[in-house]
Structure formats: C-alpha cells, structure tokens
Design goal:
Length: 280
C-alpha cells in the first residue's frame, strides 16, 4: 500500500493565539476563607464543597469538628485531635449529612460540547476529565482554530484541506512516498480507529520524518514505529525504531524528527519509505 504525501497549501507549524484546552479540566476555584464552615445549606455554592485545609473536593468520609469545620480524610489523619482552624482540642465526627449531599451531586463533563454525555459525581469530575475520551485534539495548520474529538478532526482534515486518510494494519509494513522537493503530511488510520500523522520537512542534509499518534491525553495508548530505507544501487540501508510521541497537536506538528532520508537518495522523483506501526 502506498501513500502519496499531500501537498497542502498551508504549512503546519506552531499554533498561535489559540485558547488552550487540556481536556476540559477546570482550574481550581477559590474557597471560603479560613474559619468558614461547610454545611448542608452551602450546596448551591460548589466552591464551599472543598476541604478547608487542602482545597481538594470533599468526598466521603468527611469529618467535622465541634465548631462545624469540615475536612477530608487525609487532613483528618494529619490533625486527628486538634482543629486546624479553632486551634482547640476537638473530637471529629463523621458529617453524614454532607457525605450524602456530595454523593448526590452530579455534574456534566466539560467536554459535553464534544460529545461526552457522562454525569459525574461532584468530587470525581476532575479525575474523569483528565482521561475523558471526548477531550479535544487540535488542527495543526497555522491559523486554524478547530478543536474536537479525533473523529471530528479526521472529518475536518478531509473537508477543509482535502487530506486523504489511509487505513493500515498494525504489524504490517506499508510504503510512504516521499517527494524529494516537497514537504507535507499524511494522515493514517489504524484498524482500531486510532489516528496518526507522518510529517516530512526539508533540511539541507535531506528530508526529515516525524511520526506521531494523535490522542487527547498523553496517557493514552502507546505505539512503536519502525522506518527504513534502502538503495540497491549503492547498498545503502538505514532503519530506526522508536516509541511514537502522543500529542493532541495543540502546539502543531512535533518537531522532534526521528528519521532522515539522505539527500543523495532523493535524486529520484519519489522515494518509498517502508513504515510499520505496532501497538505496545
């Protein structure tokens, strides 16, 4: 299978003036000043549902001193007999009413506009959004502000830039055609729907190639890539195998190039580079 490197009109580069989005995880909110209390009447203000010491979202078990200052389990273990706010010796009791309340609060994922329909318990919202599969990836074309799930990104590439995507089978080599005088990128789709991009840039020594896996989170699925090139006329052979970088393309295409096609091999109009992608 061969892939023709597209010749897009706009070069890919570092994104500028774009609102940063890392999967919808909200910034930490301001909480009540020292000495305030969390009670069942505070539920309309979610800012008050954080531990008054560590500022983490309250989750069962929740403890309350005699003056009704509420803290989490971790902080309770650090201050078991003395209230951090009262500075008085105290006996902490479980605040079951507040525990029931926080368990009942369900919030929508911030990635709802990208297709996530999850309703998450209040204190698990940030944890969910760090791994939400609907978190956005970005278009790497300079000046383009598109962001969305990988499926929508693939449609965006096809609709806006006429970039064709090519399906491939893991662990089976396929050929990528490199034009000696033309930089560009091509989109690959694995048999499980994962999206990859191969980017080619021209340098004085030859053409340099980078390969990346497009995913919303760097903790996603990992892949290895093997590239090779040979010339029967000269006996030249080169191969490289590396773990593929995971990126949401927020900063454009990665610039850490993994493979060099020497200039001497680019005298032909088209050079074919065998590629093999393997899930880890």
């Amino acid at each position: 299978m061969s892939i023709l490197v597209p010749e897009g009109k706009e070069a890919m580069g570092k994104r500028q003036h774009r609102e940063k989005d890392e999967g919808g995880v909200s910034e930490r909110r301001e909480v009540a000043a020292a000495g305030a209390t969390n009670t069942i009447d505070d539920l309309e203000n979610l800012d008050n549902l954080e531990c008054l010491i560590c500022r983490e979202p309250l989750r069962p078990p929740i403890f309350q001193c005699t003056m009704r200052h509420t803290i989490c389990l971790s902080c309770h273990d650090k201050f078991p007999d003395k209230c951090f706010f009262c500075s008085n010796t105290t006996v902490y009791n479980r605040c079951l009413e507040l525990e029931d309340a926080v368990e009942s609060i369900k919030l929508a994922c911030s990635n709802g506009k990208h297709g996530c329909t999850a309703r998450i318990t209040y204190y698990q919202k940030e944890e969910h959004e760090k791994d939400c599969p609907h978190a956005p990836c970005f278009c790497p074309v300079t000046g383009c502000s598109f962001k969305g799930p990988t499926a929508m990104l693939l449609e965006h590439f096809s609709r806006e830039y006429k970039w064709r995507s090519t399906k491939f089978i893991y662990n089976e080599a396929f050929g990528v055609r490199i034009r000696g005088d033309t930089p560009g990128s091509c989109v690959l789709v694995g048999e499980d729907g994962h999206i990859f991009m191969i980017n080619v840039e021209m340098e004085p020594a030859g053409n340099v190639i980078s390969v990346c896996s497009i995913q919303p989170h760097i903790t996603g699925s990992k892949f290895k890539c093997r590239l090779s090139i040979s010339c029967s006329e000269t006996g030249y052979y080169q191969a490289a195998e590396f773990q593929m970088r995971i990126t949401n393309l927020y900063d454009g295409m990665p610039k850490d190039f993994m493979f060099l096609v020497p200039k001497g091999l680019l005298r032909r109009a088209i050079t074919i580079v065998p590629v093999t992608i393997t899930p880890e």
